[in-house]
Amino acid sequence: xxxxxxxxxxxxxxxxxxxAAFGTRLAEAxxxxxxxxxxxFRDVQPALLRYLRVIAPEAAxxxxxETWLQVVAGxxxxxxxxxxxxxxxxxIARHRAIDWGRARGRRRTIPLAESESAHxxxxxxxxxxxxxxxxxxxxxxxxSALPPDQAEIxxxxxxxxxxxxxxxxxVGKSPGAVRVAAHRGLRRLAxxxxxxxxxx
Amino acid sequence: xxxxxxxxxxxxxxxxxxxxDPELDEHLxxxxxxxxxxxxxxxxxxxxxxxxxxxxxxxAGPGELGGEASARAAFAHAxxxxxxxxxxxxxxxxxxxWRAAPIKGRLAGVLVAAMVGLGGTAAAYAGVLPxxxxxxxxxxxxxxxxxxxxxxxxxxxxxxxxxxxxxxxxKTHHDAGALASAAHRLAIxxxxxxxxxxxxxxxxxxxxxxxxxxxxGRHGPHPGKAHGKAKAHGRAKAHGRAKAHGKAKAHGKAxxxxxxxxLGRQDAGMANGRANQKGRRGR
Lengths: 200, 283
Description:
The structure holds two protein chains of two kinds.
Chain A: H1 22-30, H2 34-55, H3 60-74, H4 82-107, H5 113-119, H6 126-130, H7 136-143, H8 148-158, H9 164-171, H10 175-195
Helix pairs in contact in A: 1-2, 2-3, 2-4, 2-7, 2-8, 3-4, 4-9, 8-10, 9-10
Chain B: H1 26-33, H2 44-56, H3 68-82, H4 95-128, H5 131-141, H6 149-172, H7 176-190, H8 196-209, H9 239-250, H10 252-282
């Protein structure tokens, strides 16, 4: 269900979730408090995995693991708020996913086109969309059918909860280009929905 | 209808006959991206896309926190090396999981490799996608149809029932926002806005008559849905709850497998990464 946030938003679990307590949790984690670190982990891990399931579909868990190890290693030197933390973490994740993609390119003997066609499997069922029964996994599969840059940008905006300028820095594009790519991706999703029979 | 939307030539992946560009202007798209409320008279596509995105940020699902133990172990280890943690004074505590993880990870890795080897990514998706998605995939691109229709129909029946109840509740309490939202959805499920009342009456009757009847939903009151499939009944108040249904009832087996593999993979990821970290530190 769409949970109206205090600020009037629809998102339930995105953006700064820990909120005001983030600074305290971070300081505790930096001081070696494992429970505080677990709090940071739980805050971001679902978003991280959802992002990686689209951009590194065969290695999401591995890449997430490597990401957290790098976060653990660099945590003491991190300074910033919750959004900056997420931006930092997703930057690391993106780099590790790119590494994975390169390594896969070197190792792979099966043509890449195979996985691309697999990604085109998903499209949502109209009635399920209407009934809000569409699952996170199903939408992720649908996102995988978008052009990769559009999917990634939408995921960073929505799942990671980052603003346009953070996303622009992470993907190395201008904020304008990020906005255009996100719009194109959303229009494709809408067109899929439209084709599936949802017309006013 | 022609909006500022992407042109059909931009969508090589989708056959383009028979659909119109949704009229989604940039302001509307920014509103969706920001997760803000849409005005009730925004195009249905906008509402649906907003809901899809909202489902991406729902609470953690099964397996999504499965890497926590490994992450905590890595954290405790790093903290103990830095000498900043109580863990520094009891380093032995974590050792078993450090040794166990790679073995578990390797096993899970083999399972995943076998799965991928057998059917590629498509098989992995087929195991985790809810059957309605498979069904539409079947409709759209000719992928195999789901064989889980009856459990799924039951889910839908319950979801439709809940949606009708919230629609009635919104009417009773004069909650315009909730009413518009429920009416939008019901119009889609029922076929058109004029059929909502008849649809809900049938849904409520059906729910009262067969509270836990098996696949009643398949023959439920669904007037002429687009694909000629069973589109039954219900409403999902909470994404989380609806998802839990789908997983537990329709896909329990596949999910359980997927979850085990996922957990293992997370451990494997941690283990691999840990080895890398150690290597880096050693250099």
